[in-house]
Specification:
Length: 457
């Protein structure tokens, strides 16, 4: 299809290339939707504190209420059911179930997730949980230095084991971490995310502790539950802006810092040599046995894909061409990178089954007087990325599922509520959810796939 075509409301052929048992889902995270920040014994997280620091969040908002999902989970599961999702990916707030990040469990917090899992299962939607989607218990940050402390790996493993013990038999999957690159680099090097530090050496050490925590958690959970364990990494494949040696080298280093820094230890048991050399004295302290602990067998790999990175060594750098446009985050729409990247990962790492655990776009959506949100741009984005995904599968990538980010408009971290990624529009004053045109499109797409599956296509 011509990438510039305007999407029509439906195209039944689109669903055909996907395997019959393909997982169709949508993703959220606790801190971005739950609200109920100080209810039923939840402990504070670093994002609660970060929001209270003037200037950190662009619209000066906070996460006290967010989408109030904590009180509306039954209604939100009904939205998922209406969409026809067969899977939902959510995250567990560590400080809701263990307010101090170590020590006593909070039964009321566990009760919320217990109920959510039951609601999902009753609606025929398989639950996929993530243990860490950036909301570190504030007590751990204040008392031991958060991810800067090596001890955190053991605390995280205890938390992981407890979740697996309680819920492992009802969860389709448990991911240890979501996007550790963001946690380390945006949280400790650029200061854009909580806890807002600005040290490259700290970020490198934190990335190692995150990976170690992943490995220890995998080991601890294996003792509780046999399958469905993995990790979710964000990949933004870099492309040299021009065919020069300088741009190629810069792109390769960018790939090392973002993709290989996490993939290599997890799958190959080593850090990439070029990145270690680049970091020099800022490289992390790694103890004997750490890399063995990190390299655990995985049941799945979650990849979050949104865009590519155009790497230019010119000053000022060449801008991305954006032939297919840019999202409201300013991210270039470049679905070809999804196909190419999945094939490259398949070639270089022989990974376990892959799930696209996040993919989606922020769009300047407007709820019109007729109650509709005509988000044509998002339909186009979805269609192009599903086509790119189908091409990767056809060429040999073992991708088993796709989760649109996000189910609802929600708290977009340092952008506050200004950026809307949802299939459902959220009116934050009333908490009214409205299905956008893209929700109708995705619903029809999933239904078409189910129909074809029924016919044995
Ligand atoms: O909202 C985030 C999500 O929490 C992690 N992945 C990227 C999304 C969009 O920025």
């Amino acid at each position: 299809m011509n990438h510039n075509d305007n999407p029509s409301a439906s195209n039944p052929c689109d669903a055909q290339p996907f395997p019959p048992d393909f997982v169709w889902g949508s993703s959220t995270s606790a801190q971005q939707i739950e609200g109920a920040a100080a209810i039923d014994g939840r402990g504070a997280s670093i994002w609660d504190a970060f929001c209270a620091e003037p200037g950190r969040i662009k619209d000066a908002s906070n996460v006290d209420i967010a989408c109030d999902h904590y009180h509306r989970s039954a209604d939100d599961v009904a939205l998922m059911h209406w969409l026809g999702l067969n899977a939902y990916r959510f995250s567990i707030s560590w400080s809701r179930v263990q307010p101090q990040g170590r020590g006593a469990w909070n039964e009321a917090g566990f009760a919320f997730y217990d109920q959510l899992i039951d609601q999902l299962l009753q609606a025929g939607i398989t639950p996929h949980a993530t243990l860490y989607h950036w909301d570190l218990p504030l007590a751990l940050d204040r008392d031991i230095g958060g991810w800067l402390s090596r001890d955190i790996a053991e605390h995280f493993a205890d938390y992981a084991a407890e979740v697996a013990r309680r819920f492992g038999d009802r969860l389709a999957s448990i991911a240890t971490l979501n996007e550790p690159w963001c946690v380390a680099t945006l949280g400790y090097e650029t200061g854009q995310f909580a806890p807002g530090h600005t040290s490259r050496a700290e970020a490198a050490q934190v990335s190692h502790h995150l990976l170690l925590a992943h490995g220890r958690a995998m080991q601890a959970m294996r003792a509780q539950t046999g399958t469905g364990l993995g990790v979710v990494l964000n990949h933004t494949p870099p492309y040299p802006a021009e065919p020069t040696e300088a741009d190629r080298r810069a792109a390769r280093l960018n790939d090392g810092l973002t993709t290989r820094w996490y993939m290599d230890p997890v799958f190959l048991g080593q850090y990439p040599a070029d990145v270690l050399e680049h970091l020099g004295a800022d490289a992390p302290r790694v103890e004997t046995g750490d890399l063995d602990a990190i390299r655990q067998p995985l049941d799945f790999l979650g990849i979050n894909f949104y865009t590519r990175k155009l790497v230019s060594t010119r000053v000022p750098p060449l801008p991305a061409p954006g032939a297919l446009g840019f999202t409201d985050m300013g991210w270039e729409i470049y679905p070809l990178a999804l196909t190419q990247h999945l094939l490259r990962i398949t070639r270089e790492y022989t990974p376990p089954p892959i799930y696209i655990t996040e993919n989606g776009m922020a769009n300047p959506d407007v709820l019109l007087a007729d109650g509709r949100v005509h988000d044509v741009g998002r339909i186009n984005y979805l269609r192009l990325h599903l086509q790119a995904l189908a091409q990767a599968i056809a060429q040999g990538a073992d991708v088993r599922g796709y989760f649109y980010w996000s189910l609802l408009d929600n708290f977009e971290w340092d952008s506050g509520y200004a950026k809307r990624f949802g299939l459902f529009h959220t009116d934050y004053a009333t908490q009214q959810r409205t299905a956008k045109d893209s929700a109708h499109w995705y619903r029809e797409f999933i239904a078409t796939h189910a129909k074809q599956r029924g016919q044995g296509v």
